């Protein structure tokens, strides 16, 4: 369930990208494979994609592969409350 929630959180902003459609087309198998790799400790992140964005100023962007972002968000879903509570308590003691 956590991985599915992670996917939902990511696709809100990227749902029309081709790499998202490809992942979603095979969603169940993709998520099962990710979980299997993580449990077996065989998961390896894929290389980052680099591109230049010309906005107000030019900057280089490093983008993680979509399946890696799913892992990032799933991890964040688990640890966010722990860190948030710790940081709030620490701030109150300053």
Give an overview of the whole structure.
The chain is of the alpha+beta class and 94 residues long. It has one domain. The chain is built from 4 helices and 2 strands, in the order αααββα. It has helices spanning 2-14, 18-25, 27-39, 66-92, and strands at 49-54, 58-63. Strands 1-2 form a two-stranded antiparallel ribbon. The radius of gyration is 16 Å and the shape is globular.
Task: Tell me briefly what this model is.
Helix content is 65%, strand content 13%.
Global outline:
globular
Give average pLDDT, whole number: 88
Helical fraction? 55-70%
Q: Can you summarize the main beta sheet?
A: 2 strands, antiparallel
- Fraction in beta strands: 5-15%
Task: Please give the radius of gyration in angstroms.
Answer: 16 Å
Order of helices and strands: HHHEEH
Give the distance, in angstroms, between the N- and C-terminal Cα atoms: 37 Å
The residue ranges in which pLDDT falls below 50 over 5 or more consecutive positions are none
- Oligomer classification: single chain
Separate helix tally: 4
Strands of the largest sheet, in order across it? 1-2
Quantity of strands, as a count: 2
Number of domains: 1
Judged by helices, strands and strand pairing, the structural class is alpha+beta
């Amino acid at each position: 369930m956590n991985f599915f929630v992670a996917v939902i959180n990511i696709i809100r902003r990227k749902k029309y990208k081709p790499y998202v459609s490809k992942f979603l087309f095979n969603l169940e198998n993709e998520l099962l494979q990710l979980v299997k790799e993580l449990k077996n400790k065989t998961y390896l992140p894929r290389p980052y994609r680099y591109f230049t964005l010309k906005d107000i100023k030019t900057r280089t962007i490093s983008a993680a592969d979509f399946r890696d972002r799913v892992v990032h968000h799933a991890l964040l879903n688990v640890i966010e409350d722990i860190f948030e509570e710790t940081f709030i308590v620490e701030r109150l003691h300053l």
